[in-house]
Structures are given as C-alpha cells and as structure tokens.
Amino acid sequence: MHERCSETLLHGADRLTSEDIELSSDPKVVRIRKMASSVLSEIYHMRSFVRLKALGNQVLYGYLKPRHKTGSDISRFLARRSPFTIIVLGNSLESWGSLCTGDDVLQTKGGSLEKTLEKLRGALDSEEMAYDFEEIWRVYYPSQCSSERKNMTAFYRRMPRTALYSAALEVEQNNNGLTLEDFFGSD
Amino acid sequence: MVTLEKMAHLALGSSFDSLGQNTTSLPDPYLIDLNPDRLSALGAGTRYDICTSSGCSEVRGVCHSFTHDGRCISLFKTLYTNKCSHQCNYCTNASNCSHKIKVFSYTPEELARLTIYMYRSNYIEGLFLSSGAGKDEDVIMEKLIETARLLRNKYFFSGYIHLKILPGASRSHIREAMELSTRVSVNLEAPSASHMSDLSATKDYNNDILQRQRYVKDLMRSMQLPAGQTTQLVVGAGEESDREIFNRMLYEYRELEIKRAYYSAFSPQKGTVFASKDPQPRWREHRLYQMDWLYRVYHFDPLEIDHAFDEAGNLSNSDPKAAIARQFIDGPVDPNAASYEDLVRIPGIGPCSAGRILAFRKRHKIKRKEELANLGVVIKRAAPFLKINGWRDTTLDKWSA
Hey, are the CB atoms on A158 and B63 less than 8 Å from each other? Predict the structure, then answer.
C-alpha cells in the first residue's frame, strides 16, 4: 500500500475497473494511477535489489527499508523463490518474515530485524554463516561495467537513488568511499 | 499471520505436504574459492556478450542491478576459461592478441557453487556461461554441460541458464546443452562469410556458426527450449553496412527462427589486431536495435524499413521510425478512426499506447492532445502526424531531412 494511501482513497479505487484506472483522465483517478505505479515500481525494484545473507540453512535475511507498505509482499515473493527457507526482511524498526509451504506462504511481522534474527537463532539453534557473498559481488560487479559506455543518467534512471538506499546497495552506491574510477582498472 | 516460533518449527521439519521432503543439498560455502583475479578476469571476458533473462515464459526478466550505462545485470555472466586458440582480431582472449593476459579457468563444481549461492542471496536470476575454445571446443562444451548438469540435478536449480554453443560444437553436445538450458546462443559476429573472414581467420562462418544454428533449430522441433536461441553481432569491426546487418537478421528471424538478435558496438581493445581502429559510436548500436524493434515488435514490413537506410545502406543518427513515417504517411491521421496498424506507424505511439487509444475510444471520442498524452503518447513526436477534432499540428520537422 502507498505510504500516503487513505481508507477513503482505497474505497474509491475499489469501485474502479482496471480499464478505468488505466485510461481515465479524472484527476482523482490519475492520482490513484500514480500511487499504484509508485507502489508497483517499489515492489519490482526491491524484489530484485534486496540482497540476502544466510543464517544456517533455514534462514535468509536482508535489509529493507521501503518507502511504502510493501515489506510483506516483497518477503512473500522471495519466499516463493526459495521454498523451505524462512525469508526475513527488515530494518531497525520493523521486519517481515515469510515461509513458502508450496500451496501457501506463511507470514509474520515483528520488531527490528536484529530482534527477529535473535529469536530465530534461538529457535533454530543456528550459527550465522560467516561467508560474505557481498565480497563476490564487490569483485564481479565492476567486471561487467565498461568505462567507454559510462552513462550515469541512464544508470540512475534504472536504479533510482531511493531504491539504492532502501535496499542498502553499497557496491552500487559507492558508500565505501570509493569513486567510480576505482572500479575501472586499466584495460 | 503465524508466530516466528511456529515458522521455525516448520522450517526445521523441512517437509511440506505439497512440496514433499526438502532434498536440496546446498554446497558448503566455505569451499567456494574466491579468487578475485579469476572472478574479475572471467567476468570481464563476457562484458561484450549481451543477454537478457526475459523472453522465457517461466521466468520474468528481473534486473538485480544495472551497469553504469543502464544495462541490466540479471545473470552471473562468465567465461569458463579465457584460454582460446581462435584468432579473432577484436578479442583480447584471442591467440593473436599481443597483450598477453593470465589464463584462468573454473571447474564445473566451482561454477555451480558460486551460481547457487549468488542465486539464493538474490544477486542473480541465473547463469550465462560462455568460454574461450578453439581446437578443443568439444572438451570445453562438456565442461559447460557438466556445470549445467550439476546445477540442475545436484543442486536442483530451477533458475535461468544460458549456455553459449561454441563454434564447431557437435550436434550431440548441442542437444545435451539444450536439455539443461533455458536459452542457447551461437555468436554470428558478422553478417556474412566475407565479413567474417575480416574478423577471424579461424572461424568457418557456414560450418562452425550457421550450421550450429540450424542444428538448434532442428532440435527445437522435438525439444523444449523455453527461451529459444539468440545470436549476436559485432557492429563496426568490419566494413559491413547496416542494410547487410538487417538482411542477415531477417534471415535469422525467418529461416532460423531465433528469438532475438543483439548488437554490440565495436570497441578497440589493447593488443588486438584491431587496436588502432576507431570505436563505433553508441548511436549506431541504438539505431540498429530500433530497426530490429520495428520489425520484431511493431511488425513493420521489411520494405518499409528499407526506407530508413541511406544510399550507402546505413542508418543515420535519427529515429528510423520518423524517417519511415515521413515516407509513408501521406496525410494527418485521425486517432478516432485509425486502425492499430496505422497508429503504431506514427512516431510517439507504440503498441501499448495504441492499445490504450483503441480501448479509450470505445467509450469517449478523443478531442484534445492532452487526452492522448494521458494514454502514453509522446505528443511532441506524434503531433505533426495527427489530426484531432479537425485540427492538425504541422511543423517543419515533418519535412526535414
């Protein structure tokens, strides 16, 4: 759901068909269309951008701080991708857990990501897997970039800054203080 | 909603009525040999290989990241080995490249482990695997196939796998590759045998490349290959014209039934025979994709598209659709009466907005440009070709060269 969505707006949207939403030029319907588009865009981006780490063999967790109320949808999608594995997404305030059982996806909502992981460590008696797959990405990602094709306008059009921050994509954000030039070694 | 404790209890049981027992055996991540030089060198070896994970009915395209020019990264793209005995004049892995690089190679098990963990960690949607080869393409093809077999059968990987068919690979190896892959491809590199001879002295265009594509097409009659076969050309390394490239692509789409063609603008690499050649402008690649899109998605007739080429058979750095529209659209088009085929021929109107126009006018008449803009039409490009409610915009651009 959109961060600024209200019950009144939802009630109004319920009475519209998909064709109404797509074609109408009524300002209220246009507003609904833009909000729906923003939510769908965030779900699409976060499904792809969220990076997961392992807690034993049963849990994969990742940082997510969405702008809209989309945490449970994204968690459910990733759970379907990895049956038998609990997916936990969250941040310092809230977290969403999902487990795909085939026909259904069980879900839970909790406090901060750290607290949820602590509970799971106890319940599963798991050690955190120490392997940092981010290190693989830190090496692999620059190998795909060509300096002669550099076009940051195109990059930010496809990876909006809000999405980069929501999924905490360090390598793409250059949060470690490196500049783009550091990734383009001499060819 | 369930409690976290119940979820943990169910996950420990690892057995659900609808899924059965969890038989996936994950490899030990501590056995992944992260050799950064190898990972970087073999990844960079596929930098100019273009692919996509879309086009498969089972997997929707998901871009987990983008390069610094906005290209999607959805797959773990890598060479199996960068050792190659072919003499391709544009390639840094070629045996005739004077800039010697360190030779690296994976084992199938290493590659499978890397892929499965990157997939579970949501970095990738699948694997794109190519390799250097040359005289021992059968040996290398077996390694590529073994990697795919480990992913499918040992680690129960159901994601996307794209295997490159090496030039000269045997029909039986191609069959095995297709059984395990979502998509396969053979790189054409050039639009004809004569142009190929300028690029590589060791590749036989008809036997090593076209014949392998025919094998794939024949095998697809009796086998499932969800995302079909694709191909790729290097643009501008030789003296080929855009019309020659387009004619080759027509043949590929019609006769060999490929799903997509990709175009990679030539970029000179240090130490290669073509190191001193000029790089191709990016717009040439962009215009070729536009021309490809007009044929494949908009279903323009090739005779229409032919009007976008100049006398030398090349595309200019302007929208080919606009050039075709200026040739073929005699007068302004009324969006309230035009057919779908007429609408998509107008610059600024694509298949989506044309569909919306047809749906919209079932209920309302289009009276203003703003209504068209609301439906996704790019008014700035479309306006010179439209007549709305009896009024038309006409600008000098319509008649500009």
Answer: yes
Q: Which residue of A has its CA nearest to B125?
A: A48
CB distance A106–B114 less than 8 Å? no
Residues A42 and A58 in one domain: no
In a domain, A74, yes or no: yes
With a cut of 0.95, is the ipTM above it? Answer: no
- Taking an 8 Å cut-off on Cβ atoms, the answer to whether B356 and A23 are in contact is yes
The angle at the Cα of A160, spanning A155 to A166, to the nearest 5 degrees, equals: 130
A106, A143, A155: residue with CB nearest B68 = A155
Residues A139 and A116 in one domain: no
Instruction: Go through the domains of chain B in sequence order and give each one's CATH number.
Output: 28-280 (3.20.20.70), 281-326 (no CATH), 329-399 (1.10.150)
**Is A23 inside any structural domain?**
yes
Question: Which residue does chain A place closest to B7, by CA atoms?
Answer: A99
Instruction: Determine the distance in angstroms separating the CA of B2 from the nearest CA of chain A, rounded to an integer.
Output: 6
Q: How many folded domains does chain A comprise?
A: 3
Specify whether A71 is located in the same domain as A118.
yes
Q: Hey, are the CB atoms on B68 and A150 less than 8 Å from each other? A: yes
A161 shares contact with chain B (CB less than 8 Å): no
Residue position matching structure tokens 């996950």 = B11
Alpha-carbon distance of B296 to B273, in angstroms, equals: 35
Distances (CA, A) of B174 to A21, B144, B168, B262: 48, 11, 10, 21
- B302, B250 Cβ separation under 8 angstroms: yes
Inter-helix orientation angle B282-296/B242-254, to 10°: 40
A172 in any annotated domain: yes
Q: Which domain holds residue A154?
A: 133-183
Say which range, A159-173, B46-60, B168-182, has the weakest mean pLDDT: B46-60
| N residues, chain A | 187
How remote is the C-alpha of B183 from its chain's centroid? 11
Q: Are residues A140 and A112 both part of a single domain?
A: no
- Domain contains A120: yes
Determine contact: A91 vs chain B, CB below 8 A: no
**In this structure, are A11 and A33 located in the same domain?**
yes
| Contact criterion met (CB < 8 Å) for B1 and A107 | yes
pLDDT tens column, A65-103: 988 888 999 999 999 888 888 999 999 999 999 999 877
The closest CB to that of A141, out of B5, B65, B282, belongs to: B65
Residues of B in contact with A86 (CB under 8 A): 7-8, 11
**Average pLDDT, rounded, for chain B:** 87
CB contact under 8 A, B3 and A108: yes
